[in-house]
Specification:
Keywords: ATP-binding, DNA-binding, Nucleotide-binding
Distance between the termini: 47 Å
CATH class of the largest domain: Alpha Beta
Largest sheet: 7 strands, mixed
GO molecular function: ATP binding; ATP hydrolysis activity; ATP-dependent DNA damage sensor activity; endonuclease activity; mismatched DNA binding
Structural class: alpha/beta
Number of helices: 18
Organism: Thioalkalivibrio sulfidiphilus (strain HL-EbGR7)
Strand content: 15-25%
CATH architecture of the largest domain: 3-Layer(aba) Sandwich
Strand order of the largest sheet: 1-13-14-15-11-16-17
Pfam families: MutS_V (PF00488)
Protein name: DNA mismatch repair protein MutS domain protein
Length: 522
Amino acid sequence: MQADLKPLEFDSIRRLLERLTHTPYGADAARALEPAPTLAVARDMQRAVTAARTRIDAGRMPLMGQLPDIRAALRQASSPGARLSTQAMHNIQVVMRAAGQLAGALDETPDIYPGSLDELKPPQALVELLDKSLVGAGSLREDASTELEEAFAERSKLRAEVEQVVLGRMGRDDIRDCLDDHRKVQWNSERAVIVIRGTEADKVKGVRRGSAMGGRDQIVEPMEAVPLNNRLDTLNGRINAEQQRVLRELTAGIAEHMDALNGMLDALTWVDLAFAAGQLSHHMNAHAPTLVEGPRVRLAEAYHPLLLIQFADGSGPRPVPLSIHLDGNDVLLLVTGPNTGGKTVALKTLGLITVMAWCGLHVPAEQDCEIGSYARVIVDVGDHQSLFHHLSTFAGHVEVLKRILDEADGETLVLLDELGTGTDPEEGAALAMAVLDELLSRKVQGIVNTHLSPLKDYAARHPGIRNASMQFDHQRLAPTYRLIIGEPGVSLGLTIAQKNGLPEALVERARGHLAAIIGEGR
């Protein structure tokens, strides 16, 4: 399905899901979420969300924790001769460990992933390889190779030997009192040195290696320690070279398991997104609609998802649900009624719920709702002058209509707000009727909102299109926001103008002018 997501504010749904994810992989998937390309993929995701929701409702939400992003490291490891850092390898260990634990926790929830949950399990050979090579938070073990083990053992002996030499020099009477601690050898760039007060530094024959304590002390390498320190430097060079070789070898080992690692990340991404969607479903008390073949919609007591979330969060009034049925017989719904009555909300509710369903998400509606398969959802809502700043409002409206007529067919859901506006009402109504003729001939489904009264008569005369209206409480002079199918609405512009503060006398004069206009029209 292709859909106009921006006018439906689908980005807000994406952001909600992103905040509910636990991994950078799920967060990226939430930010990029789009309607599925096929009904089968949408059903797979819906099954996963339903499985996640079931666990959440039962208090069995698995703990994933915050995981590092290893994708760049895996890409680097794929390059010949690459060498990952020990920190990057440790991050891979962390993600593999978390994925393995998650796979075990979800063992009884196979619907959470359309493939095998074994794909979530890390390659055991790689787990063992890194476990025996790394220690702590990303350090290479001293016994990661035979040569390393031997070199580190030799270094320990050599360090002890050079320390004894330096301690011997530090313990002599000529400098003992010039040292802060004559029993502790200091190390500078892996060389054993003496830190002595600057005024006494000349007492130690050796190599100056710098200063300390803001220049108060001097760092001196005693001459008798230089040969041993040089041997230590050479040995450290060997150790470093061997460590780099081992890291390249481990990186090559990671590359050998790249397919399994990428499959593990794919499964982890899917599961994280499914649980985020399950939490969103729980928050909205939503249900899984039935996804069916063919273009049709049957919604019962459906809420606008974003308005419902605002209400649940205490930041908005309780929205009013609506019920809509579109199929091969009733393809278009013509909604009329006053401004601020909820026409645009009704249109966006249908569009957003359809898109969410095709993303596999649950929707805030009754359980027996159906969402059919549409190839595209085209939305025309908003200020055309702002969308096409170089054109007039009407010219912008025409640009959108051209696109609809170019693309719409029997597998298209069209959501048209204020059809025929921006020009003379009679010409606008005539143009709107011609557009509706074309949409009906193609069996395009959707909702069309308008203020133009002639379109109500058009809908009454043409099979396939039904009148509908947004209910208005005449006693309270306020909209109820309830969609009424089968009844055309009235704009009530003068009533609303009076309610919003225009002088009563002025409104009464307007009523007189309106009566005269209607009389002339007859």
